[in-house]
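ARCHIVE CARD
Drawer: 12
Card no.: 0347
Subject: one protein chain, sequence and derived structure
Cross-reference: see card 0346
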Amino acid sequence: MPLHRIYHPLSAFSSSDKQKLSERITALYTDRGLPAFYVVILFTPIESESFFVGGKPTDKFVRIVVQHLARQLPNEEAKKQFSERYENAIAPFIKDKGYDWEVHVEEVPPEMWRENGLIPPIKFPEIEKEWARQNKPIPY
């Protein structure tokens, strides 16, 4: 499950922006075979008097924290490619609007991860494909 927490100024994203950005982020994973429901994106608006960078309040900064559980990026080249794809996906909503931003990706071991109480079938590709087809966890 990739979890994306996007901390942003109150006026950074319209509802339409959130929808489109969420679709672009989700496609980074579904294009590689993961079920869409694995991708969770949380938009957290922060008032400028509660958003500080370098000890100063800001309304021009977006902070994104990504946690990967379903897959780990296996090597430096894969990490570089993912980072480039991610930057391209978010650019129209952040960079192109003049915001400064920071993204970091945490790779968390999946052993404690559950979907509706089920252990995700990451070691069983055919079952995971069925999860993707149905876009929900199903017992196996």
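Annotation on reverse: The radius of gyration is 16 Å. The beta strands are 3-9, 40-46, 52-53, 56-57, 61-68, 100-107.
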